[in-house]
Amino acid sequence: MNYVPESVRIFVVEDDPLYMKLVRYIAELNPDHIVHSFENGKSCLENLHENPKIVILDYSLPDMTGKDILMEIKKYNPDIQVIVVSSQESINTAVSLLKHGAYDYITKDNETKDRLLNAINNAKRFDSLTSEINALKEELNQKYEFDNSIIGESPAIQRVFKMMQKAVKTNITVSITGETGTGKEVVAKAIHHNSDKKSKPFVAVNIAAIPENLIESELFGHEKGAFTGAIARRKGKFEEANQGTLFLDEIGEMDINLQAKLLRVLQERELTRIGGNEVVKFDVRVIVATHRNLAEEVKAGNFREDLYYRLLGIPIELPPLRDRGQDVILIAKHLLGNFAKENKLGNIKLSKEAQNKLISYPFPGNVRELKSVIELAAVMCEDKLIEVEDITFNSLQKEGQFLFEEMTLRDYTFKIIRHFLDKYDNNVLLVAKKLDIGKSSIYRYLKEMEGEE
Ligand SMILES: Nc1ncnc2c1ncn2[C@@H]1O[C@H](COP(=O)(O)OP(=O)(O)OP(=O)(O)O)[C@@H](O)[C@H]1O
């Protein structure tokens, strides 16, 4: 591909004819620069509609102060980069101008030429990075439009869309529950990218993935020397997400002691970093997700009741894929299309039999599992058609899938009881309640099971 340089319009505002000549000469060293000269602030401001990318501005002009012109330019278009050139070297002036949005401040001396050249190049790079970031943000927002990111027409998913519509209109907490791979993170991102916080950061933290002793500093930050290894001050995720959205995934895994601190921070909307005294205020929309039933966790004493109510906000329950009917096929086709496009595989189709096989499988790993099944099938199939034998399920043994096995009812009963006992830490009372059978029946089955082992 040939590189076509883009022309860049630069305004030079300078009342000293000699200096104007010098600055013009520097700016015109690059033939892609289109340079316009102005002798005073007013004429520069009157011509801003010509869309300069950069304004090189003399600080002391006859009609207006450099600061006033800077502020007018920024008001007109904050993306114009202003490089101020001044004959006085005053730190205070420089700091004040930079605070008001100047890109750089350069003094008139022997080094002006090199520094100005550098400043122009850096401002151009800054401008193209900013445009690139804006374009990417726009692309992300489009990617996370509800219809583009969450495929499905089933009543179960329509209920989710309805809740999401409510969630984007406010900034209250959202709690998302659903089995692994149902799309909890996709929903959280889609809410962020459709809310008025979309131009601010979306920061995700997976509580289960961080060692327990590091979570506090990860969330709230630490000061230098707060603990061994804290070699510098570090902002936490709450501060990183300021004005945007903080997604706390697997919130059910949070240690009960830390839950107390999280509750306090959420209530007060301020935090102190570990080892520090400074109170830091923040403005963050919190979205939490868990595959656990938090209400049960509260009952079992693993999750604080007050935090549970604080986080509940708008509750969104993501249905497992097996409850979404024909959505399985819609999602499969969507994932297949994406995969084929990314890997230049052409237009691959799903045979009717393959579709039936997908529909009748319970997908314990939900959409994530469907994705890997489809991607493997797309690679394995012949003649751009996925047949029934191209679909293979390798999911881990999970609830639901056991129905595929040939077993007696008695063996099934054993399996169910064993599964529940594992799930609820051998709490026989709780399992009896869950299965709606007497606890003596459980003991009886256990005894029989032992006898068989
Ligand atoms: N309705 C959907 N349509 C299309 N793709 C989806 C849908 N739901 C989920 N996905 C895709 O499925 C994968 C798993 O989604 P995600 O990571 O959001 O699940 P999760 O519920 O957060 O999982 P976990 O609980 O394991 O963190 C992702 O690749 C996501 O893009």
UniProtKB/TrEMBL annotation:
The modification 4-aspartylphosphate is found at D58. SUPFAM superfamilies: CheY-like, Homeodomain-like, P-loop containing nucleoside triphosphate hydrolases. GO terms for molecular function: ATP binding. It comes from the Bacteria. InterPro entries: AAA+_ATPase (IPR003593), AAA_lid_NorR (IPR058031), CheY-like_superfamily (IPR011006), Homeodomain-like_sf (IPR009057), P-loop_NTPase (IPR027417), Sig_transdc_resp-reg_receiver (IPR001789), Sigma_54_int (IPR002078). Residues 150-379 form the Sigma-54 factor interaction domain. Residues 9-123 form the Response regulatory domain. Pfam families: AAA_lid_14, Response_reg, Sigma54_activat. Gene3D superfamilies: 1.10.8.60, 3.40.50.2300, P-loop containing nucleotide triphosphate hydrolases. Keywords: ATP-binding, Nucleotide-binding, Phosphoprotein. One of its GO terms (biological process) is regulation of DNA-templated transcription. The keyword Cell wall biogenesis/degradation does not apply. This is Regulator.
